[in-house]
Amino acid sequence: MAQVKLNTQQGEPSSFDIYDEDGKVGEMIFDIEGTNLTVYHTEVEPEKEGLGYAKQLLDAMVNYVRENKLMVIPMCPYVHIQFKRHEDLYKDIWNKINEE
After folding, report:
1. Which residues fall within 8 angstroms of residue 45, CB to CB, at 6 or more apart?
2. How many structural domains comprise the chain?
3. Which entry of 17, 42, 62, 67 is 20 to 30 Å from 26 by CA?
4. CA-based torsion, 92, 29, 20, 79: positive or negative
5. Domain residues for 28?
6. Is residue 51 part of a domain?
7. Each residue of 3-44: pLDDT tens digit?
């Protein structure tokens, strides 16, 4: 069973990291400024794709955002696509500042 851990760094972007029995297998890179959490990148090791790890990272980020009353700026293509596909699930936390 994979586990997601929050990795915060002072002065650098933070991440949600996902681990399974093989160690770290993916990450979601983000930064927080004010009340906005900007997601820049989501990546899962190629041999671990298709196991739902990116979705677990997304769910962890969404839970964190809601618990901390933040809004998401989805610069990451994966997160942006998920927000667009499932707008009803994320409309309460989606900061559409960069949307056309």
Report:
1. 25, 26
2. 1
3. 67
4. positive
5. 3-90
6. yes
7. 999 999 788 899 999 999 999 999 999 999 999 999 999 999
Mean pLDDT of 56-74: 98
Give the span between the Cα atoms of 79 and 83, in whole angstroms: 6
Question: Hey, what are 59's tokens?
Answer: 């769910």
In sequence order, what DSSP letters do the residues of the chain get, joined into one string?
--EEEEE--TTS-EEEEEEETTEEEEEEEEEEETTEEEEEEEEE-GGGTTSSHHHHHHHHHHHHHHHTT-EEEE-SHHHHHHHHHTHHHHTTTB--TT--
CA distance 15 to 25: 13
Residue 96 counted as domain residue? no
